Amino acid sequence: MAEALTILASVSPGEVRVALLRGDRLEEAWIDRPARPDGVGDLHRARVTALAPAMAGAFLAMAGGETGFLPESEAGPVRQPIAQSVQEGLVLPVRVTRAPQGGKGARVTARLTSAEQARAAAAPPGNAPLLLARGPDAALRLARAHPRAEIVTDGAGLAARLRATYSPRPVFDEALEAEFDALAGPEVPLPGGGRILVHPTPALTALDVDAGSAAGARDPEAQRRVNEAAVVEAARQIRLRHLAGPILLDLAGMARKRREALAEPLARALAPDRLARLLGLGPLGLFEILRQRIHPPLHEVLAGPLTPGLSALRMAVREAAARPGRRLALVAAPAVLAALEALPGALEEAAAAIGQPVQLRPDPLRSWARWTIEEAGHGG
To answer: Residue 244 pLDDT more than 50?
Structure first.
C-alpha cells in the first residue's frame, strides 16, 4: 500500500515554506518569498527588442524592466528560424518557463493555453510591457500535482485559498524545521556513517562523498555500503535542493569497475525526478548528471542576509504567541536588518502577528547568524 502524501505549508512573515511528505519522509522542499517570486508561470505582455539568430531566439522587454529570452522552438506552433516567427517591435503574450539565472533573463514561451490567450486578449490595450498574471506558488503547484494529498497550513489566508485544513499551531515540527535548515548547509550525513558534501559553483555542482570512518575500516564492504547509501541520498538531495545544470558525483574511493556497478542504482534513484538525467560515468570516474533548471536552486534562494532575518521574525512571532504582550527587539547585524526593511511586507506581517512592531537594533559586531530576540528596553 502506497504511503499517504501530505503537503505542509508553513506561513511566516515574508516567507512560505512548503513540504511534500510521503509518510514522514520529506520528498520536496520549497521556499517562497511572495514579495519576490521567481516568476515561473507568470503571464506577460512583452515586446521583442532584438533578434538573436546565432542564439536561435529573441530578446524581449518585460514588465519591471526585466529581460526575457524566447527560443525559436517556443516562438510558434512550428519551429522555424526566429526571423520568420517574430520581428523587432512585435508585442506578444508569453509565459515564463524558467527563472532568471546568473544575470540572464527569464526563459519564456509564446505557446500558451487557450485560457492564457483569453486572459492576454482581455488585458488593457497598449504596447507597453505588462505583467498580466502571476504564476502559481509552490503550495498551489504541489496541490495541483498531487490532488489526493492532504494539505495542512498554519496560514489562514492560504488555507482558504487552497481549501486546505487550517492549523492554529505551526505545521512544521522540530524534525522538519531541522531538515529545512540543513538544506541551506553543505553537509548531508549518511545513514550508517559518512556524508555528502555539496559544493555549488556558477558552472556546476559537485557532490563529494566522504566515507568517514569507513574509509579505514577493516571490513572491505564498509566503503561499498557508504557509496550505496550515497547514490540514493544524492538523488534525493538533488531534488530537494533543486540543483540544476551539470552535477558531478564523486564517490568515496572504489575502483572504476566497482563504481560502474552503482550506475544502475543511481539511475533508479534519479528516475522519479523528471528533470534529472544520468549521463554516465565520465573519464575521471565521476558520475555526470544533468538536471534542467526551472526554479532557482535553494542555495540561491537562501543566500545572503535576508534568510537569517526571516528566521528571526519567525522566532519572534512564536515567542510572542508563547508569551503575549511582550515588546520584542531583534538585535542583528546591520545587513540583516537592512535586508528585512527592503523586503516589502515582512516587518508589517510580523507586527500584525505579534500585535506591535518589532524593534530593530543593529549590532555591527555580530555576524549574520548571531541574531537574538530580546525584550525591548534591555541591552543587546
So the answer is: yes
Q: Are residues 212 and 290 in the same domain?
A: yes
The C-alpha cell 498531487 sits at 146
Residues 331 and 259 in one domain: no
Mean pLDDT of 79-100: 95
Residues 40 and 133: their CA atoms lie apart, in Å, by: 11
- Other CB atoms within a 10 A radius of the CB of residue 77 amount to 8
Closest CA to 132 of 112, 150, 152: 112
Taking CA atoms, 180 is separated from 172, 173, 234, 292, 371, in Å, by 10, 11, 16, 22, 19
pTM for the model stands at 0.91
Contact 86, 70 (CB under 8 A): yes
Amino acid making up residue 121: A
Tell me what pLDDT residue 380 has.
42
Query: Is 380 among the domain residues?
Result: no
- The residue among 207, 243, 202 whose CA lies nearest residue 227 is 207
Give the residue numbers spanning the domain of 205: 185-298
* One-character DSSP codes across 296-359: PPHHHHT-STHHHHHHHHHHHHHHHHHSTT--EEEEE-HHHHHHHHHSTTHHHHHHHHHTSPPE
Asked if 21 and 159 sit in the same domain, the reply is yes
pLDDT (tens digit per residue) in 354-371? 999 999 999 999 999 999
Please report the pLDDT score of residue 379 as a whole number: 46
Residue 127 CB coordination number (10 Å) = 10
